[in-house]
Amino acid sequence: MSAPHILATGRCLPERVVTNEELNQRVDTSDEWVFSRTGIHQRHFCEEETGLDLAVSAARQAMDRAGATAADIGVCLVATFTPDHASPSTACLLQRELGLEEDTVCFDLNAACAGFLYGLKTAHALLSDTPRPCALVVGAEVISRVMDHTDRGTCVLFGDGAGAAVVRRDASRRWHAVFGTRGDPDSIRVQGPGPLPSAIHMDGRAVFRFAVEVVEQSIRQLLEREGLVSINDLDLVVCHQANARIIDFVAKRLGAREGLFFKNMDRYGNTSAASIPIALDELVQAGALRPGMRVLMVGFGGGLTWAGALLEW
Ligand SMILES: CC(C)(COP(=O)(O)OP(=O)(O)OC[C@H]1O[C@@H](n2cnc3c(N)ncnc32)[C@H](O)[C@@H]1OP(=O)(O)O)[C@@H](O)C(=O)NCCC(=O)NCCS
Q1: Of the residues 21, 37, 268, which should be mutated to test ligand 1's pocket, given the most ligand atoms within 8 Å of the CB?
Q2: Would you name the residues annotated as active-site residues?
């Protein structure tokens, strides 16, 4: 028996806030259209900041709050599909910025919007074989860099940001985690380096159907593994913050009590791998996520890929 124990979290959002009204000056949209379909009012876009800047700031916050020094960190993972460079990885540059030791296992991983939970699972596994007690798991995205800012179907959905967690492997705890992949080249695609400008292509309706299916399925699987009959036996559900309608749809199908599913996409939009750790950090700082609470998290997105985890905070 062993589980990842999240000791502390941090977050960093770029300074620049972009409202739906501001996007309406560039594309034919409105706050009413965007908010009613997604729950998003505004998001942050990087101007000066790089993805590394966001990752460093979120990671430092998490390490300070955990009371962890560079010597405590044996694993440093950055979940991202928008790294500053194809190489070196953001994790390698983060190692340098934080002064982590040379024996730290550092790499980026791309599981799109499920990336933070893939990172948590990977960090937990890697910690079994490192002399240092802690891992740093960061989700960091600069999605504004890969968006077509003239495509109203996608440019209103995403935002930039980073969230981080310091994680320890705890032999006295247990957790449940589920992972899935449905190789799909079309539903969400981001053009890689090449002659075409980078842009997100998405079949919004197909992604919506996929999301509500796998989020509900993951939650049911995790509840069953924990021997719980009702979702209301949980203290908190933190889904990837893609879209309020996806979350509300699943919450209704599962008969969840009001407020059980956390939502903050109104202020940040969809920050992909960063959305779950940003949400966790907001909850911890607000005193809404406390030790002993039973938390269920679900991420889903490009790949198509998804992941869920149930653990005690
Ligand atoms: C993207 C999403 C909000 C679109 O909502 P929808 O109701 O499916 O809308 P459609 O794409 O069918 O478009 C309906 C109309 O709105 C228009 N429209 C699209 N974006 C618009 C915008 N920002 N403002 C105004 N109108 C818009 C379309 O052009 C279309 O117009 P038409 O009927 O004249 O052709 C919805 O499909 C969704 O939430 N999908 C999941 C996306 C997601 O979360 N992805 C990330 C997962 S990690």
Answers
A1: 37
A2: 113, 240, 270
Our mutation pick for probing the ligand 1 site, out of 26, 33, 42, counting the most ligand atoms within 8 A of Cβ, is: 33
Instruction: Give the whole-angstrom CA distance, residue 161 versus residue 54.
Output: 7
Q: Is 67 helix (H, G, I), strand (E, B) or coil?
A: coil
* 247-248-251-252 Cα dihedral, nearest 10 degrees: -150
Is residue 297 pLDDT above 70, yes or no?
yes
Could you identify the residue written with the tokens 């989700």? 139
Average of per-residue pLDDT across 82-98: 96
What does the block give as tokens for 104? 């730290």
Residues 153-164: tens digit of each pLDDT: 999 999 999 999
Go through the domains of the chain in sequence order and give each one's CATH number.
Answer: 3-170 (3.40.47.10), 176-312 (3.40.47.10)
Residues in Cβ contact with 264 at an 8 Å cutoff, skipping those fewer than 6 apart: 241, 278, 279, 282
Q: Is residue 1 predicted with pLDDT exceeding 90?
A: no
Q: In the predicted model, what is the mean pLDDT of residues 107-119? A: 98
Angle at which helices 275-285 and 115-126 pack, to 10 degrees?
80
pLDDT at 258 over 60: yes
Atom of ligand 1 nearest to the CA of 207: 41
Tell the residue nearest (CA) to atom 31 of ligand 1: 153
Question: Does residue 70 carry a pLDDT above 70?
Answer: yes
Query: Which protein residues touch ligand 1 with a CB less than 6 Å away?
Result: 29, 33-34, 37-38, 113, 152-153, 156, 202, 204-205, 207-208, 211, 242-243, 270, 301
Locate tokens 């504004």: which residue?
Answer: 144
CB 29 within 8 A of CB 200: no
pTM surpassing 0.90?
yes
